[in-house]
Amino acid sequence: MGKVYRDAKEALSGLLRDGMMIHSGGFGLCGIPALLIEAIRDSGVKDLTIVSNNAGIDDAGLGLLLKTRQVKKMISSYVGENKTFAEQFLAGELEIEFNPQGTLAERIRAGGAGIPAFYTKTGVGTEVAKGKPTAEFDGETYVMERGIVADLAIVHAWTGDTEGNLVYRKTARNFNPMMATAAKVTVAQVEHLVQPGEIDPDHVHTPGVFVQRMIQCPAGYEKRIEQRTVRQRATAGAAAGEEV
């Protein structure tokens, strides 16, 4: 069977189970696998451990899974945009494992590279290092962090070919590439689906060997903006330094 599936529900068929760990790519709402997240919500699977830089917002991204209380634990570096998350955490209904952002990225990368653990100075002497082994290197104290390998990774790419080779665009090239390598199964949603050979090999960010299933986003797929900020455009004369 080929790697391309008709929709998110079909692509996730047979992969989901209660209590599993899922890598979810994206940064804020940029580069998130929104269609796959919605399909996970609709499946009703529960007690999930989600590894993601952040927890989305209340009505989008991983916030959808928090709203339906399908998430048992979040492994993240930032969750400040989600009121639902805060309420559940403060009520003792949701576990959180905070990581410095670089440490989280390296834990995922290490998992994909087959590295079970590594040492870092980040977090030494703080709550982050509590209960973790430490060691001395060149007179400095380092804390040991474990690599992370998930049961499933869901990622979003700009372009992908039918063999699973992926290209990410700009900020969406955040946690997606490393997560795609660090799971037993990776499912990708792509905005543009092309045939093998149409992507320059030098432009591939995630080789197809890491991707088992994929879907194409439908026409008109909406990419949400977490916080839209705009400034008033200067007139042509003002931009040129003229008096207006």
What does the model show?
With about 240 residues, the chain is α/β, with parallel strands linked by helices. It has a domain of about 170 residues: 3-Layer(aba) Sandwich (Glutaconate Coenzyme A-transferase), CATH 3.40.1080.10. The protein contains 7 helices and 11 strands. The strands form 2 sheets. Strands 1, 2, 3, 4, 8, 9, 10 and 11 form an 8-stranded mixed beta sheet that branches. It has a 3-stranded antiparallel beta sheet with strand order 5-7-6. The longest helix has 13 residues. The termini are far apart. It comes from Roseicella frigidaeris.
Strand and helix layout:
Elements (H helix, E strand, L loop, with lengths): L7 H4 L9 E4 L9 H10 L4 E4 L11 H5 L3 E6 L6 H8 L4 E4 L2 H13 L3 E4 L13 E4 L2 E7 L3 E12 L4 E2 L8 H6 L1 E12 L18 E4 L19 H4 L5
Parallel strand pairs: 1-2, 1-8, 2-3, 3-4, 8-10, 10-11
Antiparallel strand pairs: 5-7, 6-7, 8-9
How would you summarize this macromolecular structure in one to three sentences?
It holds the Pfam family CoA_trans. With 244 residues, the chain is an alpha/beta fold.
Mean pLDDT: 93
Tell me the name of the CATH class of the domain at 18-115 and 147-216. Answer: Alpha Beta
Instruction: Label the overall shape.
Output: globular
CATH-defined fold name of the domain at 18-115 and 147-216: Glutaconate Coenzyme A-transferase
Q: Tell me about the largest β-sheet.
A: 8 strands, mixed
Protein name: Succinyl-CoA--3-ketoacid-CoA transferase
GO molecular function: CoA-transferase activity
Keywords: Transferase
Organism: Roseicella frigidaeris
